[in-house]
Amino acid sequence: MLSNRMQWTVGICGMIFVMMIAGNAQAEIVAKVNGIGVSSDRIDEWIRTLPDQERQRARTPEGMQIVLQQVIAEEVMYHEAQRNHIDRLTSVLDRIEQTRRQTMVGELANQMLREQGGIEAVRTHYNAHKQAYKRVRASHILTETIEDLEEARAMLDQGMDFAALAKKVSKDPSAATNGGDLGLFTHQMMVPEFADAAFAMKINELKGPVKTRYGYHLIKLVDIQLPGDFDALEEKERQLIRRELFQKRLDELHTQADIEVFDDAVSKYIDGPKQSGANEMDFEDTSHNE
To answer: 0.85 exceeded by the pTM?
Structure first.
């Protein structure tokens, strides 16, 4: 039910967060391979890539010794790759360039978040647009067809509890546990058709069918919460404002850029055959010729 923009921005901000969590401890040289130092931050980097349960084990003294051996093995392989000029492969150069681009984009986004997402910038924006942060609480029942929605409404008219009915018939997977309760949300957090309907309702009012790309909704408005003082906002609410400011700046960059989308080429790409993803060697390897 989250809007595309919100989903995309959440993804961007999540990526940036991962890039910001590098440790600040002073790195130590813990080993050398062919005279090249292996620093302790390499161990930290390796551990951060592990799943949570494995990460806990890796942070024990025994686990760190195992990770160190893995890092050394990686370094040995890296040196051998250099000796075999793997860095000259076009496919490798392409991936290096992609990593460079992603790192630059991540750093720019990091700067944008610092500039746009400081506490005073967030406070100023909130106070200037306070009415936009009205929140409502609603429950919904989602169906695939209007007929199914009409049947659900008929059962409500016969006295069935909304939450019980949502658990029984709603196509929203979360309804089985929350009875269709969506909690508090701002207008920007939902897809436009759903948000427009919910924010025009009165408490305890039912509205539907409301058509979105997810299907047909029957909405019950549970509560309306008017915006209060900025200092009373929860951190997750402030984070949403930071994302809005980030998105606003991103929209400005889009407006300033000269962007062309070639629909015919896009359609041809979407409809055409897909590559397997395996890259062939793009220079002749003669090192194993007999």
So the answer is: no
